[in-house]
Specification:
Layout (H helix, E strand, L loop, with lengths): L10 H4 L3 H46 L18 H7 L3 E7 L5 E6 L21 E3 L11 E5 L18 H6 L2 E6 L2 E14 L15 H13 L2 E2 L10 E8 L5 E10 L12 H13 L1 H6 L2 H53 L6
Parallel strand pairs: 2-3, 4-8
Antiparallel strand pairs: 1-2, 1-5, 3-4, 5-6, 6-7, 6-9, 8-9
Helix pairs in contact: 2-8
């Protein structure tokens, strides 16, 4: 009587069919390519994100007034001074400040209004450009109205703070500024704010002489169209400036802030007594520390980069563990198959039992 085959392990439960193996292999390959695709997408997004942050930060740093702070005109002409900036670029002719804002820039003047749209006060190519006096305005500000132009940029760069005057409270609480030219400071007393179309040509007339009938008509037109007016007794005999920048609120819109040039120099009401801090800043400038502190914006972007880098390593580690798991499963399957083959072969070779 022959003995029936006995299996220690049921092959139906432990041995995968060819179709199952192929299916599992296909799923594994698909999972592998999905992981690779995810990693590639995340890598591209990370690189693009880091580059975009770096590029934006570089743009804002180029537009920031802090890069010019050390050149701001002072009575003692400490080094580096405003004169040193003029040696770098002879077309630098003045300095404009609007107290309570980040408008604190050197001014340039050339015969071409397009030149400083993408050239900074150092004379180098720069997308933010520079604050510049209109080519038709005189450098001694002897015209009735002198026009000062600058880009409207985010983060309060260049003339980016002019839109804040659209809120009446801000206009009422920010009354003064400073204008430096021909080696002397002059006060600015702001009296009107406007939001107008760039093609309102009668608002942008240059070359008018103070005390003339045309100056009176020009001033009357400004006061009539202004969004806000401060009564400071401005007349056609005065000299005024118009700060001019773009607006996105209306098509071809322009923000316009107008102030009277005065001999009286006003103190900045927004500056607190920070003599100790200012002494620290001056010491930092001398050691070059302040410039390094200004570059800390890159530190934030570096943290973001490393965050995505850690995420990338996590995915790679996950992919590696999955591959090792599949490898172990295949090894186990081969071992089970080997054992079952050996068991089956042993049973078939065994002699039949006799009674």
């Amino acid at each position: 009587m022959s003995r029936a085959k006995v299996y220690l392990v049921d092959p139906k439960n432990h041995l995968l069919s060819v179709r199952q193996k192929l299916g599992k292999t296909g799923v594994g390959i698909l999972a592998f390519f999905v992981d690779v695709l995810i990693i590639l997408v995340l890598t591209l997004l990370t690189v693009y994100g880091v580059y975009a942050l770096w590029d934006s930060q570089q743009l804002y740093e180029e537009a920031s007034s802090s890069q010019y702070t050390s050149y701001r005109p002072t009575e003692d002409n400490k080094f580096p001074s405003f004169i040193d900036l003029q040696h770098i670029n002879p077309e630098v002719m003045g300095w404009i400040q609007v107290y309570g804002t980040k408008i604190d820039y050197p001014m340039v003047h050339s015969e071409d209004n397009n030149k400083y749209l993408n050239i900074d006060a150092y004379g180098n190519f720069s997308i933010p450009g520079a604050i510049f006096l209109h080519a038709s305005s005189k450098k001694d500000f002897s015209d009735f109205c002198s026009i000062i132009l600058g880009h409207h940029m985010a983060k309060s760069s260049m003339f980016g703070d002019l839109d804040k005057f659209e809120k009446e409270f801000f206009f009422r609480s920010h009354e003064y500024g400073n204008l430096y030219y021909e080696g002397k400071n002059h006060g600015l007393h702001f009296f009107a704010y406007m939001l107008e179309d760039a093609y309102e040509w009668e608002l942008f007339m240059t070359g008018l002489k103070p005390g003339t009938e045309k100056a009176e008509e020009y001033l009357a037109n400004i006061l009539d169209k202004a969004l806000y007016v401060r009564d400071i007794g401005v007349s056609a005999d005065d000299r005024i400036v118009m700060l001019y920048t773009c607006s996105e609120e209306i098509t071809n819109g322009r923000y316009l802030l107008l102030g009277r040039i005065e001999e009286e120099v006003y103190e900045d009401p927004f500056v607190r007594d920070m003599s100790a801090f200012n002494h620290f800043v001056e010491s930092a400038d001398a050691l070059g520390i302040r410039e390094r502190i200004r570059q800390l914006g890159v530190f934030g972007k570096t943290l973001i980069f490393f965050f995505f880098l850690i995420l990338l390593f996590f995915l790679l580690d996950r992919l590696k563990k999955r591959r090792l798991q599949r490898k172990a499963e295949r090894a186990m399957e081969r071992e089970i198959l080997r054992l079952m083959t050996k068991i089956e072969g042993g049973r078939e070779d065994a002699p039949p039992e006799t009674t």
